Amino acid sequence: MTSRKTYHHGDLRQSVLAAALDVIAAEGPGALSLRDLARRAGVSHAAPAHHFKDRAGLLTAIAAEGYDLLAAALAAAPELRERGVRYVRFATDHPAHFQVMFQPELLRADDPELLAAKERASAELRAGVADLRTTPDARAAGIAAWSLAHGFATLLLSHNLDEAVAAPGDGTPEEYFRSLTGLLFSGELPRTAGE
What we know:
CATH topology of the domain at 53-186: Tetracycline Repressor, domain 2
CATH class of the domain at 53-186: Mainly Alpha
CATH architecture of the domain at 53-186: Orthogonal Bundle
Shape: globular
Radius of gyration: 20 Å
Number of strands: 0
Order of helices and strands: HHHHHHHHHH
CATH superfamily of the domain at 53-186: Tetracycline Repressor, domain 2
Distance between the termini: 81 Å
Number of helices: 10
Structural class: mainly alpha
Largest sheet: none
């Protein structure tokens, strides 16, 4: 009788997702390869396809996870400005998710898990705007708020704001974003170093 060794990985799905997030954070989503991820996880090159089918399936799973994380982050904020701060914090804490979530050409747009996760995140964004009593067009206000938070986060992650947010006394990117919203929405000027 021959003894046959079988390799049981444990949670291959999570291992592949974690490795994919590392690759995306370092090199972007274009560098992803299921074969490379299988090698990193120490499994056959076909093993990741069992969970994700293909690269688009893997990226869709990452995006769905990202939208769920974003929804949870936004739900913990009491009002719109703080939801914007949480949005920026989410982007800086989860840059690989953030990169993938907003590139629909990489994803399976009809994936039920992705659609449900996007709806949860959208509902949290809308909930933040619902508290605004002075806005006649809540939809436009929501788009404006999202554009501000998303634009700031994108500029931050692409290192286009390094000099602006690195000035002594400015604090964290989240604090800087909070002061910018004050400038735009209440006429408050952001504090500069030395004030």
